Amino acid sequence: MKKNTSTPIIIAEMMQLIRENHGINLDGINMNLLLRRLELLTLKHKITSVNDLMNILMHQSETSSNIIQQITPSVTGMFRDPGLFLRLDRVIVNQKLDKQTIRIWHVGCAEGLEVFSMAIRLAEVGLLTQSVLYGTDINEYALKKANKGIVPLSEFKNYSANYLAAGGMNSLSDYFTISYDQAILKQHLRNKIFIGKQQLGLKENFQKHQLVLCRNLLYYYNLAEQNMLLDELVDSMVDDGIICFGINENIENLTASINLKCLDAQYRIYQKLKG
């Protein structure tokens, strides 16, 4: 997948194929990032021609699933950036979000690990009963894992360290049922989580949320798409609602950022202005 004069046509055909066969719309994605990922994936799967890649993506298979998972925006992990969770504890109390029903939307939730982390954290600070957590993504393969509440045991040691760094009050294993090579989130936590497929940009979200987490998703899109997506995210929030971005994401050059006030520059936490 080396870049040449025909590359834009090939990419357009591939994106159409993914849209028609897998129901995933990649319009507006950063092309340079997409090309880099495709080059790595073709090497990994020993794909030597564009036709071979197209044939793989045309069918539902383990290989096509793996490729699509790798090229769609997806960054996940339990208690990623542990300091964010400590900071959010204070923000929720300071903004008096703890005095109302807390609707939380995890945008681009991938396999749901960040949603699981938030549910655990809310349980430990006594806010889970008044909270509803939504996780959405465009990748159906990742969402199937998220709906099962599964965390791979191979990563559990790292996640346990993150959990403690995030102010964990117990043992992370207390919140899971261990079975063979995987850990399954306990049912009382899963009862507060709703996972589903949603494509940003279609303005399908009619709820207003107190807290939105859209971390490292805007990075994957071009500037025009970023502007449109941020506008949609801000519109999905209540006045004074909180939104979090990835710690390396810069939104100040986006037009919708004028509706946001920075509460924490390190962890990219913002509040929606009234009016």
What does this structure look like?
- With 275 residues, the chain is of the alpha/beta class.
- Helices cover 40% and strands 19% of the residues.
- The chain is built from ten helices and ten strands.
- The strands form two sheets. It has a seven-stranded mixed sheet. The chain has a three-stranded antiparallel sheet with strand order 3-5-4.
- The protein is globular and about 55 Å long.
What does this entry show, briefly?
The protein is α/β, with parallel strands linked by helices. Helices cover 40% and strands 19% of the residues.
The general outline is globular
Using only CA atoms, what is the Rg? 19 Å
Head-to-tail CA distance between termini: 48 Å
Class by SSE composition: alpha/beta
Beta-strand percent range:
15-25%
Please tell me the overall pLDDT: 86
Order of helices and strands: HHHHHEHEHEHEEHEEHEEE
If helices are DSSP runs of H or I spanning 4 or more residues, what is the number of helices?
10
CATH architecture assignment name of the largest domain: 3-Layer(aba) Sandwich
Largest sheet: 7 strands, mixed
**Count of DSSP strands:** 10
Number of domains: 2
CATH top level of the largest domain is Alpha Beta
Poorly predicted runs: none
Percentage of residues assigned to helices: 25-40%
Trace the largest sheet across and list its strands: 6-2-1-7-8-10-9
By CATH, the topology of the largest domain is Rossmann fold
Oligomer status: single chain
Say which CATH homologous superfamily of the largest domain is assigned.
Answer: Vaccinia Virus protein VP39
